[in-house]
Amino acid sequence: MENSDVEKTHAPLARRKGGIRTMPFVIANEAFEKIASFGLLPNMILYLTIEYHFDAATGTSILFIWLAISNFMPILGAFLSDSYLGRFIVICMATIVSLMGLIVLWLTAILKQARPPSCDPSKGNCIKPNAGQIALLFTSFVLMSIGAGGIRPCSLAFGADQFENPENPNNERIMQSFFGWYYASVGLSLMISLTVIVYIQNEYGWIVGFGVPVGLMLVSAIVFFFGTNLYIKVTPSKSLFTGFAQVIAAARKNKHVDFPLKDSDGCYYRGNDSKLVAPTRRLRFLNKACIIQNPQKELNPDGSASDPWSLCTIQQVEQLKSLIKVLPMWSTGIVIAITISQHSFPVLQANTFNRHFIGKFSIPAASFGLFGILTLTLWIAIYDRILVPYLTKYTKDPRGIPVKYRIGIGLLISCLSTTVSALVEKKRRSRALEEGLAELPHAVVNMTAMWIVPQYCLSGLGEAFNAIGQIEYYYSQFPNNMASIAVALFALGMAVANLIASLIVKIVDDCSKKGGKESWVSTNLNKGHYDYYWWILTMLSVGNVFYYIIISYFYGNFEEEKVWNEDDDENIKDGNGAIIETAKSKDSPKNLAIN
């Protein structure tokens, strides 16, 4: 028998590894990593503005770029794990890198030399950080982003590897149990991050507040490594991203090749055990990637392509087409992702409200994001358990409200969320000026912080409708082996949104302070005009609603699922509505003809 790193098999001997006993290690690793990493973001804008003397616009832009990198890196991590290193190695490396990043950030709080000297912002005597201090801070951000890029795309899939065993009649129940515990741990981790970790940072300072995540990440690493000998470690295979690149390269290389006069079996390269005999006609130029010109030269004796960069399978071509097809719909989610990613300014806003809740207890400014998460969670539970059975009777859709409408409703609610944010900020600013607090940026306005709860709740509700609808739409358009692409697309949308959000803040800051005027996104909220900033986001959101209407109109009924399962023997349709017919008992019992 080979070592534990051989390709996963369902033989009885291989099942000595993995199974239910690995669940505590995998879930504990994910839970502690989530608490450690997500516990830093809510208060980070305060750390940058108070300790590093960045203005609000610069600090927010830095955090947007950090988030963008953190959302881009999982795509690279997924590629490395699927193609070269395997999930176990990537998680191990990423865990260590994340721990290093957290330690570096902790050092910026411990070492006084790592930060500018303390000052009174109201006196205007604050010294900006030097190049070395900025480099140390940014190093911690980059290391944490690299670590997140390895852990986030691999953790769930690695856990599923431990339990997947088709020979076990209880496999489906076991997998469902694992996914349930996994997502429960993620939700609990986020809540702990927004409450316990934020509270520790506020009450005990940055040294303790950053030290706790370091300790949690260290525990996460130890727990994960402790179960090393128990894990099933799947050997990496060819990545889908490599397949996409091969299709593009082959189509470009074969651009002068003529299309066959008739799509028939033998004209296109099917690969081994594939039922598809011809590609669809949409994006027809990509079909040249799978045209067989010289079988003796292009195919090996076993039927495989001698050069996969010159000849691809029909399945590869159709997978790339399905990805290209969803891109316009994917683009409609960028603006709402910008509004969802507004973590910094709301924290600064909450910091100026009266946050006393019961007695002397004061809700941390960074903990108000919990209202959004609770709204999202409660809505999902109510919708799935109560509303779907009722709505299905009227919509005839097993999912209740069709995906197209859920995505659109989420966009509309997002518009309402930014509108409420603008109105509340206008009210807060007016009250601050009436109370003579214009020159006191950190003064507390005589308004309860409950004023900002509705905007968080609306943001969470909009995300529940739109984000889940997006992912569900991607899943309906992709084959099973592209499920990871659905999640990657959503992360990519968040990354692009973070970059655009950073650009918006930069443009608003530069344009509004021309002529010596106070910036709309000034560090002093009472002098700035954050209500104008929210109105800009509202206008973008409204424009995006009309853009979505246009895109969805041209898409028509994009609820239709595309069935890719090679083992299904039933009539299905492609993205153009063309019938993919089954021939169970005809000349080619395993072939499907695409008309």
TrEMBL record:
PROSITE patterns listed in its UniProt record: PTR2_1
InterPro entries on file: MFS_trans_sf, POT_fam, PTR2_symporter_CS
Superkingdom of origin: Eukaryota
Keywords, sorted A to Z: Membrane, Transmembrane, Transmembrane helix
Subcellular location(s) per record: Membrane
GO biological process terms, semicolon-separated: oligopeptide transport
GO function terms (MF aspect): transmembrane transporter activity
PANTHER family: OLIGOPEPTIDE TRANSPORTER-RELATED
Record protein name field: NRT1 PTR FAMILY -like
